[in-house]
Amino acid sequence: MTSDSLYTVAVIGGTGPQGKGLGYRFAKAGHDIVLGSRAAEKAEAVAAEVTERLAGAAGAGQVTGKANEDAVTAADVVLLAVPYDGHDELVASLPLAGKTVISCVNPLAFDKRGAHGRVVNGGEGSAAESAAELQPEAVVVGAFHNVSAVGLWGEEEFLDEDVIVVGDSVEGKQVAIDLAASVTGRPGVDGGKLRLARVLEPFTAVLISINRKYKVHSGIRVTGLDQGH
Amino acid sequence: MTSDSLYTVAVIGGTGPQGKGLGYRFAKAGHDIVLGSRAAEKAEAVAAEVTERLAGAAGAGQVTGKANEDAVTAADVVLLAVPYDGHDELVASLPLAGKTVISCVNPLAFDKRGAHGRVVNGGEGSAAESAAELQPEAVVVGAFHNVSAVGLWGEEEFLDEDVIVVGDSVEGKQVAIDLAASVTGRPGVDGGKLRLARVLEPFTAVLISINRKYKVHSGIRVTGLDQGH
């Protein structure tokens, strides 16, 4: 960890592999997690599973489960880890005003030629930008698009990857940069403005192609950062 | 090097920093390079500069300079390292039929909020796909989008990055995968179909943002590849 900031994070889509895995990693680093799902019972069951996994982890945060709207209300940071199908309707329905919202939503499509990015708003949009438009009183950033769910739930202390964070709010990005250390052991990398989520979201299609070809769970790392100051 | 294949590579845009740097690296690894420019004299001058840089490099290939069209005619592999402005007209004008064409063209735009990808064909296109449409008898792949020109011309034996290669032809991709070893010391990474150039091209905008923020020359590395077989 490189930051002392501890957050209460609602994970919308917290019962899916990406949300569950990120919630586990954040909790292991001391953040309190509220897994959200459409049905509170489902969220509670997965929260119990994550809590069991954390047994004996020193300094771990609390993991609970609630219905999505209650999860958001209980948190100051909201991670959107939902499928792109139905994304806009769900985001519009949640009480996100005043929250820091981290989107790791990947608008992808699959056909016989493999995975590829879905075109959002004629190429001038992304899931993260849609969330920002739908919730103008939320601070929306994009991050955690490219981390492997398998790795998140796996045994390695940290993933050998970087988390690239994009957004138009420095303070909002800092939250995701802090949380990234839970996953990678080092802060997230500031990748620029929110519109660059247009690149990070479909980049996952490249990693899926690599995974299929090489039978691995790939990620990306930013090289050259240690040249700086 | 992981391959014994040696190519004659025409570098269109060979007098720009990316083209010159890639030509230098390819020649250092034994490939013959024909730098191309609109004016033969300019290409010849840069070829002389690269040749001087290669003095004493054991096993280096020949580096010559020609006008673009003559460079293409002299080569079996053509690297497109040109600005996106004027790209389509230039590509349409070159005798590329039957050639393996590697595009590292990045359609980027810059405004006060930084670098971002230009929308090609309503979000359903890329420079590489445009080249493939304009030259249906060429084999077009995308690669080398994200390598830093500063690093290419620098002193390090190999760059600590990966070259991701996309394309619809396995044979075409193999050429770029081979050539990547000149730059990184290991083969390029097969990143899937040509349409995924839509992701690799604008990813350079993320790296430019990182470079500005952290004052570095960043690149990307694919993690997890050593898990495979």
Query: In the CATH scheme, what's the topology name of chain A?
Result: Rossmann fold
Poorly predicted segments of chain A: none
Instruction: Tell me the span between the first and last alpha carbons of chain A.
Output: 19 Å
Please summarize the sheet with the most strands of chain A.
8 strands, mixed
What's the structural domain tally of chain A? 1
Percentage of β-strand residues of chain A: 15-25%
Keywords (chains A, B): Oxidoreductase
InterPro entries (chains A, B): NAD(P)-bd_dom_sf, NpdG, P5C_Rdtase_cat_N, STEAP_metalloreductase
Pfam family, one (chains A, B): F420_oxidored
Protein name (chains A, B): NADPH-dependent F420 reductase
Write up this protein.
Chains A, B: This is NADPH-dependent F420 reductase. Chains A, B: Keywords: Oxidoreductase. Chains A, B: Pfam families: F420_oxidored. Chains A, B: Residues 8-107 form the Pyrroline-5-carboxylate reductase catalytic N-terminal domain. 2 copies of one chain form a homodimer. With 229 residues, chain A is α/β, with parallel strands linked by helices. Chain A has a single domain (8-214), classed as NAD(P)-binding Rossmann-like Domain (Rossmann fold, 3-Layer(aba) Sandwich), CATH 3.40.50. Chain A has helices spanning 17-28, 40-53, 68-73, 87-93, 127-134, 149-152, 170-184, 197-214, and strands at residues 8-12, 32-37, 63-67, 77-80, 100-103, 108-111, 114-117, 139-142, 164-167, 189-192, 219-223. The longest helix of chain A has 18 residues, at 197-214. Chain A starts with 7 loop residues before the first strand and ends in a 6-residue tail after the last strand. Chains A and B meet through strand 7, strand 10, helix 8 and strand 11 of A and strand 7, strand 10, helix 8 and strand 11 of B. Strand 11 of chain A pairs antiparallel with strand 11 (219-223) of chain B, so a sheet runs across the interface.
